[in-house]
Design brief:
Number of strands: 5
Distance between the termini: 35 Å
Helix content: 25-40%
Shape: globular
């Protein structure tokens, strides 16, 4: 399994709107791509900025290429990103997942 990591930032005032934008674009397209195993979006706000870290898990490099195209290390952007992003990573990082743990859902009593 491969983790794909991207970072970017918006003005703090645009942070919530950007999350909604991500839900309509990147998050839904990640999830719809065969071979995607997880989508995690992280945000922290401070110093007038909302920083984002997107972590996706993929079954293979081939699966990543289905989403990202022939150059998987290149970040994928949408035209509307220009409206929000004050900083954006043009290159994504790929890491081999060597361990993964998911807690079982707590039982309801």
């Amino acid at each position: 399994m491969i983790a794909r990591i991207w970072q970017g930032a918006t003005a703090a005032k645009d942070g919530e709107e950007y999350v909604e934008f991500l839900r309509r674009t990147g998050f839904s397209e990640y999830a719809a791509t065969p071979g995607n195993r997880a989508v995690i979006g992280l945000r922290r706000v401070g110093d007038g900025r909302a920083e984002f870290l997107l972590l996706t898990l993929w079954e293979s490099e081939e699966a990543i290429r289905r989403f990202a195209g022939p150059t998987p290390e290149q970040a994928v952007f949408y035209p509307e990103d220009e409206r929000y992003l004050v900083e954006r990573g043009e290159i994504v990082d790929h890491w081999e997942v060597v361990h993964r743990f998911e807690a079982a859902e707590p039982s309801i009593r």
